[in-house]
Design a protein that fits this description.
Layout (H helix, E strand, L loop, with lengths): L10 H10 L3 E3 L3 E7 L2 E10 L3 E8 L9 E6 L5 E15 L9 E9 L4 H14 E3 L2
Antiparallel strand pairs: 1-3, 1-8, 2-3, 2-5, 3-4, 4-7, 5-6, 6-7
């Protein structure tokens, strides 16, 4: 359903869209590379919808900056989606089960912005063949 892809939205519109867009949990391992200027952050995709995705990443004492572009790569597939324009919706720390660890785990949720037709097609393939609907 390609008409569900996100575009430029104000935060209130995204909240409404978020409730309409079905989240799909990754059944295959996928990585996200968030690029902001010269900085890059690698994380693992947790879930994806036609409007955006959430990924988890590890940090020492810093939080990843708002990204401008995102690449998605599947670990066991040639599918790779490059240079997806994105906007960060939220970024929060996930509880670390290791009490003496200094490494923090965070989750970032992003919204896709103005995807090309090819990017839409690739996201659709990713959702159809490499995810399962969230419960």
């Amino acid at each position: 359903m390609l008409s569900e892809f996100g575009g430029a939205m104000n935060p209130q519109a995204f909240e409404r869209e978020r409730r309409k867009s079905k989240r799909h949990t990754m059944k295959d391992v996928a990585f996200a590379v968030l690029t902001s200027g010269s900085d890059e952050e690698l994380g693992q995709v947790v879930n994806i919808s036609y409007g955006g995705l959430a990924f988890e990443y590890f940090v020492g004492s810093r939080q990843v900056n708002d990204g401008k572009y995102l690449d998605i790569m599947l670990a066991k597939s040639e599918l790779r989606i490059n240079k997806i324009p994105v906007r960060t919706i939220c970024d929060f720390e996930i509880k670390n089960d290791l009490p003496f660890s200094t490494i923090a785990k965070r989750q970032q949720s992003i919204c896709f912005e103005m995807l090309t037709e090819e990017q839409k097609r690739q996201v659709d393939l990713l959702i159809q063949y490499h995810t399962q609907p969230s419960q």
